[in-house]
Structures are given as structure tokens and as C-alpha cells.
Amino acid sequence: MCPAFGGLRVLTRIEGSRVCLVADQGCLYGLTFVSHFYAARRSIMSPELMNVQISGGTMIDDVRFIIEKIAEDPAVTFIPVVSTCVAETAGIAEELLPEKAGNAVVKLVRLPAFQIKSHPEAKDVAVSTLLDRFADFDKPKKDKSLVVVGEIFPVDAMAIGAVLQRIGVESVVVVPGTDLDDYRTAGRAEACAVLHPFYERTAAIMKENGVGIVTGNPVGAGATAGWIEAVGQALELDMETVRRVAGEEREKAAAVIESFSGHAGKVIVAGYEGNELPVVRLLLEAGHEVPYASTSIARTSLVEKDHQLLSMLGTEIRYRKYLEEDKAAVLQYGPDLVIGTTSLDSFAKEQGIPAIYYTNNISSRPVFFAAGAGTVLGMVDGLLRKKQVFREMKEYFATLP
Q1: Residues 4-116, CATH architecture
Q2: Checking DSSP bridges between strand 104-110 and strand 100-101, what pairing results, if any?
Q3: What is the Cα–Cα distance from 380 to 304, expressed in whole angstroms?
């Protein structure tokens, strides 16, 4: 899948936005399909570039024409002009585009696949571009205010909000968001909690503008308490209250994890979402063996703490992974369960190993605090209890003529 999809996922969900996609016909077809399938029921407009337009020098005129057509709708307030990795579209000059059309602000968002290697990192490009254009960094900071960065399950957002309120946080905004005001408000936050390690550019732009950065996430007992305390320190809250709440949440998560610790198994985690390592950390905390984990994102400074911990605990970690590496790991380690990509899942099932799709089974579920731990570990526990069924199925079909 083209990584530009991740950026489109962010951009198409914004109220009042309508994307102008500057790409050739092949990119247009594929990206329009996955954007509607995974992201939002929003129109994407495009000059539908052909070789004659690209080579004939009419591309900029065609893009401008589409921008003006989009701007005829008074409900459109933002027109992201998305360029892909076709050589001519990747190098489109922003100064040749209008800054505004009708009621809409126009902003170029570059999502070339030769530079952006995964769709999570394309989300980071889109979010950082929006913050650069819209965030109110020049206005005074709001007292005890926090911006949370991460595309998270709605129940997780509610849980985070409830805990932050208990420790004294007075204002919370989450990006990626569905309203441009979320991005404006984000610039006035005192601190920024980056929940996923691929938001490297976003963290950098926030830090450059005087916003304190909180890394990590509330996944697992110890990390939950540590994250709450880090937020409290970043916002200079009453640390007695913060530590009390952190201790309560640690105990809740620890109790849930302990309840699943008696059914340990060997699990391989191989996704492309970029949030795999916290899930591995949770599995290890529950007593599972995770000999191998892989992800499509690069190794960044934001992932380093988890990398060091998991490596020390014996997990082999691959960044920018290939399917062949994941398949080799399945054969080498013989896991009881694979949580991976669709291609890897098919391969694992051929070996008689239970396997589920990471995106639909992890990223679509809550993972934070005690509730998230219970959801993830409960699912894993149920699958491990059925591992013999998969082996019997394989043996049955192997006997057929």
C-alpha cells in the first residue's frame, strides 16, 4: 500500500477539507480507493494527470483549475494539495499555488513514497504540516494544557481524558483531529504527549516552539504510572495528587495483567502500524514470550526506550521490515500465535499456527490503562487456548487426497 494513504487518512477526516490530489492516474485510483475504504467518505478531487499534461507543461494550470473548482463550494475551508512520488508532482512548487481560494486556505502537503517509507510516518508528515500552518504558537500558552498526539481508539481517548482530569490537567486536545481548531489550539499547549514513536517531525516542531515533550504511553502497569507522572512533571501539577492517581492506575493495570499471567505462550508481533513495541511490552509483562517483533517504521529517538527494554528482555526487533524476515522468524521460533500482516497471517496458518491481522485486532481496540490491557490480553488468551484446533485442522487437510 502506498504510504501516502496515511497522510490522506489524516487530511480527509478534517471537517471542511477537500483534498486536491496531484498524482498520475494509477496513484489516483489506488489512493482514492484506500482513503474511502479506511479513512472517510469524503470526495477527493484531482487533475487526473496523464503523460501529456506532465510532459506538456500544463500541470500547474490544471492543479490551479481544480483548486478553483473545489473552492466553489462555500463549505470547503481547507484545501490540502497532496503531491505524491511521481517525479513531476513531487517537485511541485508551492509558491505557484494560491494561498487561498474562495473560503478555503490552500496548503501543499508533500507525501512522496521515495522519502516517506510507511503510512504511519505519512501521518506524521500531515500532522506536522498542519501544525506548521495553523498552530497558534505565537499566542500565550494555556495553563495546565496538554496536546495528545496519536490516532487512538475512542475509548482510549475517553480514558486518557478522565485520568488527566483527575491529576489536574485543565485543557486537552488530541491530534490528528477532525477540526482545524484542534491544530490551532495545539500550539498553545504547555506540553505534548507523543503516544506513538513515529510522530518524530510533530514532536520536533512542538519542541521548537517551546512545548515540552512527554514520550511513552500508558500501556502496562509500570509504564502507565510512569506516563502519568511524566505528564504531571511536564505541566508542574501537584505531584502528590499525580503520584496517588499514578499508583491507583498502576494497581488496576497490574491486577488485570496478573489475571492473565497463567496462560503464557510464545507470540510474534509483526505489524506496520508503528505502535507494535508497546504491545510487545504488555505481552512480556503478562508473562508471554515474544522472541521477535517487527514494524514498518524507522528506529527513532522516540522508540529508543522501548527498544532498549525489549532487547534486554530478549526480543529481536526489526525496523523497516520485509515479509521474508517475518516468515523466517515464524519458521525459526515456532510461535503459538502470530499477530501480523495479512500476508504473514496466511503463511502462519499454513503452518498450523493461529494468526490474526494486527491492524484490525490491535489498532481497532483500546490498549491503554487497565481496560486496554484487559482487552488485548483477553483476546490473546482466547486465541492461545485454541492453538490445538489450528494444528488439528492442518493435520486433517494434510490427510486429504
Answers
A1: 3-Layer(aba) Sandwich (3.40)
A2: antiparallel
A3: 26
| pLDDT value of position 140 | 95
- pTM value is 0.91
Separation of alpha carbons 101 and 98, rounded Å: 7
Q: From residue 75, give the alpha-carbon distance in Å to each of 126, 131, 140, 290, 328.
A: 22, 22, 30, 50, 52
* Identical fold between 4-116 and 145-256: yes
d(CA 319, CA 335): 20
Give residue-wise pLDDT tens across range 163-198: 999 999 999 999 998 999 999 999 999 999 999 999
CATH topology for the 260-398 domain: Rossmann fold (3.40.50)
Residue with cell 501544525: 131
pLDDT band at 156 (very low <50, low <70, confident <90, very high): confident
- Higher model confidence: residue 37 or residue 303? 303
Q: Is the pLDDT of residue 53 over 70?
A: no
Look at residue 203 and tell me whether its pLDDT is greater than 80. Answer: yes
- Give the CB-side neighbour count of residue 88, counting CA atoms within 13 A: 16
Using one digit for the tens of pLDDT, what is the confidence trace for 382-401?
Answer: 999 877 777 777 676 667 66
The CATH number of domain 145-256 is 3.40.50.1980: yes
Domain boundaries defined on the chain = 4-116, 145-256, 260-398
First-to-last CA distance in the chain? Answer: 37
Q: What confidence category does residue 57 fall into, taking pLDDT thresholds of 50, 70 and 90?
A: low
